[in-house]
Amino acid sequence: MNDKLTITPLGPHIGAEIAGLTLAEPLTQEHFEQLHRALLKYQVLFLRDQPINPRQQRALANRFGDLHIHPVYPHAEEAEEIIVLDTHDDNPPDNDNWHTDVTFIETPPALAILAAKQLPPSGGDTLWASGIAALAALSPPLQKLLAGLEAEHDFTKSFPAHRHNGSEEERQRWQAAVANNPPLRHPVLRTHPVSGRQALFVNEGFTSRLPSLPARESEALLGFLFDHIRRPEFQVRWRWQENDIAIWDNRVTQHYANADYLPARRVMHRATILGDKPFWRP
């Protein structure tokens, strides 16, 4: 038995394809360690031909840590930790913006595992961007300015009221989520708790303002940073096939799910692994 994984980098800054694993089966310790090391280096990993059910996906995700239960998205019947992203004409996508998952909580997710279940005939690609590469490309004076700032992250920026009023039950679930997730602050620059690498940690999906700056300065600086991280050289783009799996480090990346496939349907299952409180260490 060959215990060494095949790792093919997809770009100079982010992304690698992994072969030699069957994720529906329990990982050996050696394979888990190789996968984890690759994730720290490449930030997002892709594996083809990986049929997996919700219970198996939950077991895989649990190898990395405890799982988050999303306050709004529906979940798989077999495992409440697996959210179901089922988008079509009657339920249009709401994740076609650049975002880091669930930064509106005190300990945002460390990792996420996304499985492709049903895909449109074309379109529906996902892009990931490296916050590490984006930060490294900024000038030293701007890096110095950002190192002293915190940013506010707001649940309602990506989950506004008008998108969650289809029924009284949905509206009440949204109101409870808002009450349980007030806006909070994270450092604009984040130190990875394992690798020590530094990354830009603001995202258009949830970052609402820089509280220590006047409103116009905050808006201008965040607008620049949101545009900056979208530069193609910091990105990898994945064209999904059914049963593909992506695993990414949510602490140092953000992603964008293309919504170019309607009226076709796209169904994805996601497991979200809880992380720790973001910090910045010079």
TrEMBL record:
Domain TauD/TfdA-like positions: 7-272
UniProt keyword annotations, A-Z: Dioxygenase, Iron, Metal-binding, Oxidoreductase
GO biological processes: sulfur compound metabolic process
GO MF entry, a single one: taurine dioxygenase activity
GO cellular component, one term: cytoplasm
Enzyme Commission number, as recorded: 1.14.11.17
Cofactor(s), by name: Fe(2+)
A Pfam entry, by short name: TauD
Family according to the record: Belongs to the TfdA dioxygenase family.
Protein name, entry field: Taurine dioxygenase
Organism field: Aeromonas encheleia
